[in-house]
Amino acid sequence: MRSSGYKRASYLALFTIFYNVLEGLVSMWIGAADETLALFGFGADSFIEVISAVGVWHMLQRIRANGGESRDEFEQRALKITGVSFYLLTAGLVATAFLNLYQHHKPDTTFWGVVVSLVSVSFMWYLIRQKTAVGIALNSPAIMADAACSRACLYFSLALLVSSAGYELTGVGSLDAIGAMLIGYLSFKEGREAFAKAKGMSCSCGCSCSP
C-alpha cells in the first residue's frame, strides 16, 4: 500500500514537472509576443517551480528506497537554487513593472493570460486534491507540503487571472504591471520559504515556518 502510494506521488511530481515546463514555454512566448509582463513573469515562475518539483521527485525516490523525510544535500541545493531564482524574479518583475507604469505601457492583449490562468487553475486544483489524498493516506508531511506548494501555484494563477481579465474588461494598462508586482510579491514569499526549508525548518508553501 505504501509502495503504491509513493509511486503515485512520484507520478504526480513528474506530471508537475512536465506541466510546468509546457506552461512556462507557452506563457513566456506569448507574454513576450503580447508584451504582457504578468504572463511573462508567470511563465518564468513556472520554470522555477520545475526546479522545486525535481527536488520533490528526488525526495520521493529516496523515501521509497530508504525511508525518512529529512532532506539530503541534493534537495537542499535545489531549494537554495529555487530561493535565489524566486528573488531574482521578484527583482526583475518589480523593476520592470515600475518602468512600465512610468512609461504608461499597455500590453497588446491579455486574452491569452486569461486562457493560461484558467487552464493552470484547473490543473493546480487537480494536483492539490490528488497530492493531499496521497499525503493523508501515507501520513506524509513531505507530500502534504508539496500539495501546499501546488496551492501556492494556484495563487499565482489567480493573480494572473485577475490582472489579465481586468485589463481585457477595462483597458487599464497599469493592471498588467500591478499583476506582475503581485506575482513578484508571491515569488518573494516562495523564495523566503525555500531558503527556510533548506535550513531544515518546517514549512508548507504560503504558511509560516518553524524549527
Automatic annotation (TrEMBL):
Keyword Methyltransferase: no
Pfam families, sorted: Cation_efflux
Record's GO cellular component terms: cytoplasmic vesicle; membrane
Membrane topology: Multi-pass membrane protein
Record-annotated Cation efflux protein transmembrane domain positions: 81-197
Parts of the chain that traverse the membrane: 12-32, 38-60, 81-103, 109-128
Key word Transmembrane present: yes
Name listed for the protein in its UniProt record: Membrane protein, putative
Organism this protein belongs to: Citrifermentans bemidjiense (strain ATCC BAA-1014 / DSM 16622 / JCM 12645 / Bem) (Geobacter bemidjiensis)
Native organism taxonomy: Bacteria, Pseudomonadati, Thermodesulfobacteriota, Desulfuromonadia, Geobacterales
